[in-house]
TrEMBL record:
InterPro entries, alphabetized: AAA+_ATPase (IPR003593), ABC_transporter-like_ATP-bd (IPR003439), ABC_transporter-like_CS (IPR017871), ABC_transporter_ATP-binding (IPR050763), P-loop_NTPase (IPR027417)
Domain ABC transporter: 1-223
Protein name: ABC transporter ATP-binding protein
Domain of life: Bacteria
Keywords: ATP-binding, Nucleotide-binding, Transport
Lineage: Bacteria, Pseudomonadati, Pseudomonadota, Gammaproteobacteria, Chromatiales
MF terms (GO), sorted A to Z: ATP binding; ATP hydrolysis activity
Source organism of this protein record: Acidihalobacter yilgarnensis
PANTHER family for the chain: ABC TRANSPORTER ATP-BINDING PROTEIN (PTHR42711:SF17)
Length: 289
């Protein structure tokens, strides 16, 4: 699936400003960016639900048509589920909408729905609801699956559980397009990421290649109070509210400087670079969750 010169305008709002994307069959592409970056607008165009203001979209070399609709599955960011019916009945209801469906038992097992099958779908926890919405998106056994911020609002454990389900679905060979503002989610699930900001793609590639292209070295973290006057050390330092971070590609030399200045290192931590750092590097702004 590919898109060229994609744009979306809502009146005066130019939400998507000319982006090119492609995802190969069986791979997972992540659209990553802060609130308002244009991820949902882009996904809705790729899903064939919202006409682009400019640009074109191709699926298996053709414009989006019946074949695409037959082979696509969508998990929306907000979905109203029918009320007063159980999870099992909800699945049955949605199954009737498709000529070809995956077996219910398989869907139930794939999305771990067993324990709440007979519960009213309004009584589900956040994680359970997302698993049901995922099952609904998989009913027609799609080749390409769209997930719009599937774990927003979930607690960390539920988010990780959901990631495992997506990994299993990926292993079935499905193509996945996913939007998220969680860098770790993109890093865990996506073969490629498109980092978006203000309606544009500002970086595109595999997570590791993007990090390697922009960074060398690691980040040393210390509590803010450990370095009362860090400026005097001529190190590359970034201040956060409770800690400072020192970027370095020569850990030995940096540690030697800190030791020479009698900086207490008991609480020193070392971390690698993340997609979060990359966003900060590219835009000068932290990602707003
Ligand atoms: N139907 C609409 N009418 C007018 N403006 C819209 C509409 N949908 C989105 N926008 C605007 O377009 C811009 C991009 O929104 P979009 O929802 O695509 O971003 P997003 O990256 O998905 O954000 P979020 O992470 O909050 O879902 C925002 O400024 C938003 O307010």
């Amino acid at each position: 699936m590919a898109a060229f010169g994609l744009e979306k305008r809502y009146g005066k709002v130019h939400a998507v400003r000319g982006i090119d994307l492609s995802v190969t069959s069986g791979r997972c592409l992540g659209l990553l960016g802060p609130n308002g970056a244009g991820k949902t607008s882009t996904l809705e165009m790729l899903e064939g639900l919202s006409p682009p203001s400019a640009g074109e979209i191709r699926y298996r070399g053709e414009a989006l048509g019946p074949r695409f609709r037959d082979e696509a599955g969508i998990m929306f960011q907000h979905t109203a589920l029918p009320e007063h019916i159980t999870v099992r009945e909800t699945l049955r209801l949605f199954s009737r909408l498709y000529p070809r469906t995956r077996s219910q038992d398989e869907l139930i097992a794939r999305c771990s729905l067993e324990e709440f099958l007979d519960r009213d779908s309004r009584r589900l926890s956040g994680g359970q609801r997302q698993r049901l919405l995922l099952a609904i998106a998989l009913i027609n056994d799609p080749s390409v699956l769209f997930l719009d911020e599937p774990t927003t609002g979930l607690d960390p454990q539920a988010r990780r559980n959901f990631w495992h389900l997506i990994e299993d679905i990926k292993a079935e060979g499905k193509t996945i397009l996913l939007s998220t503002h969680y860098m770790e989610e993109a890093y865990t699930l996506c073969d490629e990421v498109a980092i978006m900001d203000h309606g544009q793609v500002i970086a595109l590639g595999t997570p590791d290649a993007l990090l390697a292209r922009h960074f060398s070295g690691v980040v040393l973290q210390l509590p803010a109070e450990a370095l009362p006057a860090p400026e005097s050390l001529s190190l590359e330092i970034r201040r956060h509210h409770d800690r400072i971070e020192i970027e370095t590609s020569d850990v030995n030399a940096t540690l030697a400087k800190l030791l020479a200045a009698n900086i207490p290192l008991n609480e020193l931590r070392i971390r690698g670079r993340t997609l979060e750092d990359l966003f900060l590097e590219l835009t000068g702004e932290a990602l707003r969750g």
